[in-house]
């Protein structure tokens, strides 16, 4: 663990112990904790006694350690504050201001990506969607979910969507998904209505799993198609900043 003059080493060590316990599917023994943390026996005893007294860890009769109930309380509190819209709203407004285009937020709901919020900068544009719209595979947000989701439900959705698309090239699509994962951005040319295109960027969590997709939507001539364009890089940086709220790290 890298030391920094602006951090408290002992607190970092305590969190390190909790991390080892959290990553184990079974209670962790003292010897294993010492091996994985590299903390001396005398100091590790002190850390464990402190964490146990604070109910951050629980010590069973065999002397092994698991997460304490206090962490469950913290987890429940975090879930209560897991409202993506209210927590991230300032970031979406910043994206709209930077791009001067509409911005949408989509989450996976039941069996497909669904738009939950839209921030309109250009009120005169018909983006072809509204809150509650189910997005197709070849939309920018749809491609983002296809690129970053790993569960079977999403795989089934992709399969069903492919069957509806004439002359669909699975090989070409998988190549595009690889490019999306590499560049962190997906492009869609007029997926819903004529003359309106978009690009999409993921919001990821600490497991590198997708939480939501952000799409910037505008007239086709105003949507860049190069990931290196400054505007797109700014949006990617903002989305990475949002992702870090959920523990994402590169």
Automatic annotation (TrEMBL):
Top-level taxon of the source organism? Bacteria
Residue ranges occupied by any IclR-ED domain in the UniProt entry: 70-248
Residues in HTH iclR-type domain copies: 8-69
PROSITE patterns given for it?
A: HTH_ICLR, ICLR_ED
Kindly state which keywords UniProt assigns to this record, in alphabetical order.
DNA-binding, Transcription, Transcription regulation
Q: Name one Pfam family in it.
A: IclR_C
Keyword set includes rRNA-binding: no
Quick check: keyword Transcription regulation in the entry?
Answer: yes
Q: Which InterPro entries match?
A: GAF-like_dom_sf (IPR029016), HTH_MetabolicPath_Reg (IPR050707), Tscrpt_reg_IclR_C (IPR014757), Tscrpt_reg_IclR_N (IPR005471), WH-like_DNA-bd_sf (IPR036388), WH_DNA-bd_sf (IPR036390)
Gene3D superfamilies in the record, alphabetically?
3.30.450.40, Winged helix-like DNA-binding domain superfamily/Winged helix DNA-binding domain (1.10.10.10)
* PANTHER family referenced in this protein's UniProt entry, alphabetically: HELIX-TURN-HELIX TRANSCRIPTIONAL REGULATOR, ICLR FAMILY, TRANSCRIPTIONAL REGULATORY PROTEIN
Q: Mind telling me what this protein is named?
A: IclR family transcriptional regulator
- State the organism of origin: Ureibacillus suwonensis
